[in-house]
UniProtKB/TrEMBL annotation:
It comes from the Bacteria. It comes from Vitreoscilla massiliensis. Pfam families: PNP_UDP_1. This is 5'-methylthioadenosine/S-adenosylhomocysteine nucleosidase. Residues 7-231 form the Nucleoside phosphorylase domain. InterPro entries: Nucleoside_phosphorylase_d (IPR000845), Nucleoside_phosphorylase_sf (IPR035994). The lineage of its organism: Bacteria, Pseudomonadati, Pseudomonadota, Betaproteobacteria, Neisseriales.
Length: 250
């Protein structure tokens, strides 16, 4: 396999098993607790990475993939929960930017004063320019790679399961089911959807200088009653596979 390959990441089996099944000449590699499949699809070289859930798992899997395979680019993809009431199940969000919405500094509240996540408005910057600052308060957004985003945009009309939009993908080691909290995150971070991996992948990819794009399908959306559908995982994989192919053949 050449270094002209794309790593396609997924946290869960339902987000990557279909992709693996389409690869030819597949070889599985296990590094620590993370699984990678190397193979070919219609003349392009791909690596499918099962990162497992959460920011730390995704960061570790990303660093391993970059060091081991030296990919041309990374696409982090999978299912997500909707924050935007205009998004329906099966809609796809191209992450123009990603953000860690769980890296926050809470207000000072005395004992007995309770806790209210709707007052957590100060965000920590994970990659501050001044590392001597003990409290780098700033929302850090990771922009998508322009070429990867262009490849995804060019294929929007080919997706028939829903609409393909551009937005902000918010990540945290948290599954939000409080509608007021979701509305707060949408207001303060501009979040379209939430999940648990993309921002940490973007953080590691940025430090290595590797192009990265996050693509997420809406698998459920409690803001408008959209019930969970596991078939969204396959729909997203189909779309992402074509994005990777277009990018590598450009």
């Amino acid at each position: 396999m050449s270094e002209n390959c794309v790593v396609i990441q997924a946290a869960l089996p339902l987000e990557c098993e279909y992709l693996v099944g389409l690869l030819a000449n597949v070889r599985q590699e296990i590094r620590g607790g993370w699984v990678f499949w190397r193979g070919e699809y219609e003349g392009v070289d791909l690596i499918v990475s099962k990162t497992r859930m959460g920011l730390s798992n995704a960061a570790a899997a990303t660093a391993i993939a970059i060091e081991r395979y030296q990919p041309r680019a990374i696409i982090n993809q999978g299912t997500s929960g909707g924050h935007d009431p205009e998004l329906n199940v099966f809609d796809i969000v191209l992450g123009v930017q990603t953000v860690n919405c769980g890296m926050v500094k809470t207000p000072s509240v005395a004992a007995g004063g309770g806790s209210n996540s709707l007052t957590w408005v100060e965000a920590f910057d994970m990659l501050p320019d001044d590392e001597s600052d003990p409290e780098p308060i700033r929302q850090r957004y990771y922009p998508a790679d322009a070429e990867l985003l262009a490849a995804a945009r060019a294929l929007r009309a080919n997706y028939t399961h829903g609409k393909v939009v551009e937005g902000t993908i918010a990540s945290a080691d948290c599954w939000n089911n409080e509608l007021d909290r979701i509305a707060f995150l949408r207001q303060h971070y501009g979040s379209s959807v939430e999940e648990m991996e993309a921002a940490s992948v973007a953080q590691i990819a940025q430090q290595y200088g590797v192009p990265m794009l996050a693509i997420r399908v809406v698998s459920n959306n409690i803001t408008n009653g959209g019930a969970y559908n596991p078939d969204t995982g396959k729909a997203c994989q189909d779309f992402v596979l074509q994005v990777a192919k277009r990018y590598l053949q450009a």
